[in-house]
Amino acid sequence: MKHYLCLMLVSFLFSCGKNDSLPDQQDPDTYVPPAAKSGTWRLMTFRDNLYIGDRTFFVLSQTAYIISGKNVYTYEPTLNKLVQIEDFPGGGERGGISFMSGNKGYYGIISSTNDTTSNKNLWELDPGTKKWLQKKDVGFDVNGVGSLMAAPNGNKVYVKGTGKPYVYSYEPITDEWKFVNRVNANSRYLYFIFYSYGNKILLDGEQAAGAWEMDLTTNLWTKKSSLNGLVGVPRPNWVSTDKCISLMGGFSAIPGNDLYEFNTNTEKWNLIPYTGGNGVVEGFTIGNKLYTVISPNFNRTEIWEYTF
Q1: If residue 41 lies in a helix (H) or strand (E), which one and from where to where?
Q2: Which residues pair with 167 in a beta bridge?
Q3: How far is 179 from 168, CA to CA, in rounded Å?
Q4: Could you give the 3-state DSSP secondary structure of residue 207?
Q5: Tens digit of pLDDT for each residue in 203-231?
Q6: Which of 109, 138, 270, 275 is in the most buried spot, having the most CB atoms within 10 Å?
Q7: How far apart are alpha carbons 52 and 79 in whole angstroms?
Q8: What is the CATH number of the domain that holds 225?
Q9: Which residues pair with 5 in a beta bridge?
């Protein structure tokens, strides 16, 4: 079974040492990435005069869809190019929730620029036609719910906000939303990891918070000892079809500089040292590769690849 996680829909600053090998003056059409090596990062491609902010992602058939406001881009590793496609037709200007189910991608619940209001719209993307279809509005009050996290599992997608304890489910086939339950996690702590694997959903967060696990056959939550043993606060997680990745660090301007992968067999976190580019970092996985979309400044976007 494929595994999924959600994305907390805010960008974050990732700081690391300057990589002098960045091709600042090269043409992206003639740039050739270095050879891939296991356990290392490499710059794949870049676009100057392009800034993709407040991003969210889903991956369909080895193609990543990168959504920023109304702008939508695709990235295929085999083509190694960022390609802009038809604009997203929904409202809102920043943030949102994204997930995949079956062979379709979903995006919606978009915040206004001042973050005081949110739409409840949900849209479905057909990767064949690249066209969006509006679905039924989200079936719960999104005000004060915080950043929404999605964990697809089978024919359902489970959704939880960081600001409230309630869990909902969405079935794309029937286009129906349902209330599932609430988790009694301590509201003092930050839980940014909402991840589905097997018949479980993991809710994990900062080190002192411990973790919670929901059995999807009973819809009951069980408190677990902390699975991570990580230092600091987990940052937003990568939209992923097969891996759960989290950046650890505090909320200062210079957070931690390591990524962690959740091992579903051992239920432990494994360190992935980060030596990619500078800037605002978010990403996705395709196959056994991890990709980060980075904005070193407001005039450049880069895509880096990590080989496991």
Answers
A1: strand 41-48
A2: 160, 181
A3: 4
A4: helix
A5: 887 666 778 899 999 999 998 865 555 55
A6: 109
A7: 19
A8: 2.120.10.80
A9: 195, 240
